Amino acid sequence: MIQIGPVRRRLLAFGLALGISLVPGCGKKTQSESGAAGSAPARLRIAVIPKGTTHEFWKSVHAGAAKAARELDVDIVWKGPLKEDDLKSQIELVQSFTAQKASGIVLAPLNDKALVSSVDAAVAAQIPVVIFDSALAGGKVSSFVATDNRAAGRLAGERLVKLLDGKGKVAVLRYQEGSASTRDREEGFLEVVKKAPEIEVVSDNQYGGATTETAASASESLLLAKNAAKGGLHGVFTPNESTTFGMLRALENTKLDGKLRFVGFDASDKLVEAVRKGSIDGLVLQNPFNMGYLAVKAITAKLKNQPVEARTDTGAELLDKQNIDEPAMKELVKPDLAKWLK
């Protein structure tokens, strides 16, 4: 039996740990590994940390990041909390990748303040950070890649005002406290509807939380509290995938789907089908694939000492029954993820 010394054993274990989640070049060797000149620069290894990993939105971000990694010939490690309320896990991930000396970090922060110190620690360790999807309240970041969320919220508000002919009672089911992206959408929406003289906002302080289950429960409570079944509510807005699906479920359970005007945010197969059926009047769509793609391009440019934009808007569109079958909308709703997530 061949004996392996403790130092070599630790190095082997560390190398295996690094290689488990590498995308796309986990089987490739650097020049120094293959016996060529040791002066070649180390292969870039970029940590991509989303808010969660279960929603369709994040799967699309992952695919875009993988496409950029393949084009740029860098490795990405995709790792995030399972649920979008696990802030402790996300902080630990940033700290872990900092300790592992990742080349760079791409992060969608669950909380705009709680991640600042961990991000600054990474930068102090000479690991640049690009923030995507949701802003950070401070921190020495290299770039911010995201939807203009306030503008996207205004887009939703304009559509709901139009659907209600400028009059009626409306409510917002917020996502969760500390999320900058959804807060900006909510405030953009309210900015528009509060300017309509015959629109009354009857609720804007309820939160759905990070899962469909909590959002459905909060939605049913909101509908009951505002006596929606008897005309106490005419329109609702939800700012992300989990709150939109939770509200849809609550409207279906109370037989109010298609009766209240409903504008949501983000897409999944079930939500798009609800638009087709008329249960949802519109969905504001981001471009998560493009978000992941541009975020990895930004961190790679930073690592190669190339110019990087401080802020990149990845765009938003509104999906409804009229444009649901347009090719551009189909591509936005259903990008070919399998091509990049093999």
| CATH superfamily annotation of the largest domain | Response regulator
Sheet with the most strands: spatial strand order: 1-3-2-4-5-6-12
Shape: elongated
Helix content: 40-55%
Mean pLDDT: 90
Q: What is the CATH topology assignment of the largest domain?
A: Rossmann fold
Major sheet characteristics? 7 strands, mixed
Kindly report how far apart the N and C termini lie. 38 Å
Model regions low in confidence, pLDDT < 50 over at least 5 residues: 6-38
Q: What can you see in these coordinates?
A:
The protein has two domains: 43-147 and 288-315, Response regulator (Rossmann fold, 3-Layer(aba) Sandwich); 149-285, 3-Layer(aba) Sandwich (Rossmann fold), CATH 3.40.50.2300. Helices cover 41% and strands 17% of the residues. Helix 2 runs parallel beside helix 10 (288-303) and helix 7 crosses helix 8. A seven-stranded mixed sheet has the order 1-3-2-4-5-6-12, sandwiched between helices. It has a six-stranded mixed sheet with strand order 8-7-9-10-11-13, with helices on both faces. With 342 residues, the chain is an alpha/beta fold.
Topology:
Blueprint: H1 6-19, E1 22-23, E2 45-49, H2 56-72, E3 75-78, H3 87-99, E4 104-107, H4 116-124, E5 129-132, E6 143-146, H5 149-163, E7 167-174, H6 180-193, E8 198-207, H7 212-225, E9 235-237, H8 241-253, E10 261-265, H9 269-277, E11 282-285, H10 288-303, E12 311-313, E13 317-319, H11 327-333
Parallel strand pairs: 2-3, 2-4, 4-5, 5-6, 6-12, 7-8, 7-9, 9-10, 10-11
Antiparallel strand pairs: 1-3, 11-13
Can I get a quick summary?
This protein has 342 residues and is α/β, with parallel strands linked by helices.
